[in-house]
Amino acid sequence: MKIIGIIGGCGSGKSEVSNLLKNKFNAYIINADKVAHEILEKDSEAYKKIIKCFGKNILDNNGNINRKRLGAVVFSDKEKLKLLTNITHPYINDNIIQIINDLKKDNKYKYIVLEITALGKGEIYSLIDEYWYIYCNMNVRLDRLLKYRNISAESAKDIIGKQPTDSEFRKYADVVIDNSNTLKYTFEQIKAYLIN
């Protein structure tokens, strides 16, 4: 069982690649962003710490964390983003490690695909056998963000500008998949790598 870390910026198509691995190569997908959603659920430990740090203005009418409001607070301030990361990452890491350990016991999947948004060091990263960097042309990324996230071009550029650069991602990458073209072209690259 191989653990593949899928990395790449917003709009690069990490989920598309993950789905190809799931549907064509018997991979189990762990999306770190989805795990992050789960740990933010109302009245969880992470939820309480976040409210204590960022106040109740980030809550919706039902008392749940409104991710857009929280994002507006932290993405405009590096220190606040770091604070949020320090709160959430231990919970995210623990959940992911538990999922991986359970999957290893089952031994049902050929690959575990961990779709992550951050690059870093620590226990979770030491579990990854190889990193796949999903590269995508900047114009394609911007088009995707505008189309699927319903945000302005300025917001899209701001999000991308706060993420690691192409050269930073490539430093981590064991494999580079170009997802700027058709899904068929992306699939052919994956197939050539995994089958050879």
Automatic annotation (TrEMBL):
<comment type="pathway">
    <text>Cofactor biosynthesis; coenzyme A biosynthesis; CoA from (R)-pantothenate: step 5/5.</text>
</comment>
<comment type="function">
    <text>Catalyzes the phosphorylation of the 3'-hydroxyl group of dephosphocoenzyme A to form coenzyme A.</text>
</comment>
<dbReference type="GO" id="GO:0005524">
    <property type="term" value="F:ATP binding"/>
</dbReference>
<dbReference type="GO" id="GO:0015937">
    <property type="term" value="P:coenzyme A biosynthetic process"/>
</dbReference>
<dbReference type="InterPro" id="IPR001977">
    <property type="entry name" value="Depp_CoAkinase"/>
</dbReference>
<keyword id="KW-0067">ATP-binding</keyword>
<keyword id="KW-0963">Cytoplasm</keyword>
<keyword id="KW-0173">Coenzyme A biosynthesis</keyword>
<protein>
    <recommendedName>
        <fullName>Dephospho-CoA kinase</fullName>
        <ecNumber>2.7.1.24</ecNumber>
    </recommendedName>
</protein>
<comment type="similarity">
    <text>Belongs to the CoaE family.</text>
</comment>
<dbReference type="InterPro" id="IPR027417">
    <property type="entry name" value="P-loop_NTPase"/>
</dbReference>
<dbReference type="GO" id="GO:0004140">
    <property type="term" value="F:dephospho-CoA kinase activity"/>
</dbReference>
<dbReference type="GO" id="GO:0005737">
    <property type="term" value="C:cytoplasm"/>
</dbReference>
<dbReference type="Pfam" id="PF01121">
    <property type="entry name" value="CoaE"/>
</dbReference>
<keyword id="KW-0808">Transferase</keyword>
<keyword id="KW-0547">Nucleotide-binding</keyword>
<keyword id="KW-0418">Kinase</keyword>
<feature type="binding site">
    <location>
        <begin position="11"/>
        <end position="16"/>
    </location>
    <ligand>
        <name>ATP</name>
    </ligand>
</feature>
